Amino acid sequence: MAVAKAEAPSVAKTQVRARPRLLFGKKLRERVNQVVSTLFILLGSVVVMVPIIWMLSTSLKLRTNVATIPPEWIPVEVERVKVDGQDVFLYDVPIDGQTRVLAAKQLDPTRTAFFDPANPSQII
User: Fold this and answer.
1) Alpha-carbon gap, residue 83 to 120, rounded angstroms
2) Are the CB atoms for 72 and 65 separated by under 8 Å?
3) Which of 10, 78, 82, 120 is 20 to 30 Å from 19 by CA-CA measure?
4) How many CA atoms lie within 13 A of 59 on its CB side?
């Protein structure tokens, strides 16, 4: 009996093409990817943290300071005094090169004037 020999499949010769040279090396590409990824993570964390910080800052403010323009990130203590039975806020007002502490008095719905809390009748 004759035994049929199995022939090995013929291997076609393939041409090996030269790979085009990469503009950057592999290590440099990995480093650039790492830096870009880190920047995206930092940007994302800032986007998440800013509202949380704003919420904490706002919780420490008085109601009158919550909606001030421009917004204040760090709350400032507001000074108030009683003049003629009303609570009025004190302001640092520059006058003639000096800074004086004055209170504000609303004369009518469209006008406000400053006065010395020690002498409320003298409007400045």
Assistant:
1) 7
2) yes
3) 10
4) 6
